[in-house]
């Protein structure tokens, strides 16, 4: 058994000729799957098939095999690639699914979580950037804003320079500054 497993999550496979001639059932799904690039021809299933043995013999063999673990005929099947150590002990190596005749490899839990976390962090970063942009609001209170047509005078500009930011604005500015520097 190898510890390195091919990542074919970007690949899908479909055999329209097989599907046109044979419906996908519990009995035909592994034959259909054996034509895909996901199938390992050195597995126990292939040895049993080539020798014309009863598939029940697989339970007594040691090595890699494929097992249909879930199904909703004829549109959905789950196939696991397992390593069988003995009659009762198996280890799942990969999981595949067939949806409406197209075969896919399931992503690993690790790659799925990394993808979701990466997407979440991207959106959080965009949110903080938007929040930081929004915090750059005018510090002139609404009561002091100039109406259209009025001119700014020296007196008003001096009073604006003397305003001190509120404690809340200061805290928000520090938090946003910290977050933008930590990226």
Automatic annotation (TrEMBL):
GO MF annotations, alphabetized: transcription coregulator activity
Main location: nucleus
GO terms of biological process kind: regulation of transcription by RNA polymerase II
Cellular component, GO, one term: mediator complex
Spans traversing the lipid bilayer: none
Intracellular or extracellular location(s): Nucleus
Keywords linked to the UniProt accession: Activator, Nucleus, Transcription, Transcription regulation
Record note on quaternary structure: Component of the Mediator complex.
Family: Belongs to the Mediator complex subunit 6 family.
Role noted for this protein: Component of the Mediator complex, a coactivator involved in the regulated transcription of nearly all RNA polymerase II-dependent genes. Mediator functions as a bridge to convey information from gene-specific regulatory proteins to the basal RNA polymerase II transcription machinery. Mediator is recruited to promoters by direct interactions with regulatory proteins and serves as a scaffold for the assembly of a functional preinitiation complex with RNA polymerase II and the general transcription factors.
The name this protein goes by in its record: Mediator of RNA polymerase II transcription subunit 6
């Amino acid at each position: 058994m190898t510890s390195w497993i091919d990542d074919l999550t970007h690949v899908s496979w479909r055999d329209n000729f097989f599907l046109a001639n044979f419906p996908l059932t519990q009995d035909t799904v592994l034959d259909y799957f054996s034509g895909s690039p996901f199938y390992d021809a050195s597995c126990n299933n292939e040895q049993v098939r080539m020798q014309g043995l009863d598939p029940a013999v697989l339970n007594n063999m040691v090595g890699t095999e494929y097992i249909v673990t879930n199904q909703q005929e004829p549109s959905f099947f789950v196939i696991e690639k397992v390593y069988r150590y003995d009659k009762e002990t198996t280890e799942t190596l990969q999981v595949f699914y067939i949806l409406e005749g197209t075969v896919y490899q399931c992503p690993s839990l690790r790659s799925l979580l990394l993808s979701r976390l990466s997407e979440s962090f991207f959106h959080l970063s965009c949110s903080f950037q938007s929040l930081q942009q929004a915090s750059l609001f005018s510090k002139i209170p609404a009561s002091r804003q100039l109406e259209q047509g009025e001119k700014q005078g020296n007196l008003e500009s001096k009073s604006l320079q003397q305003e001190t930011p509120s404690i809340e604005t200061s805290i928000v500015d520090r938090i946003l500054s910290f977050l933008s520097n930590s990226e």
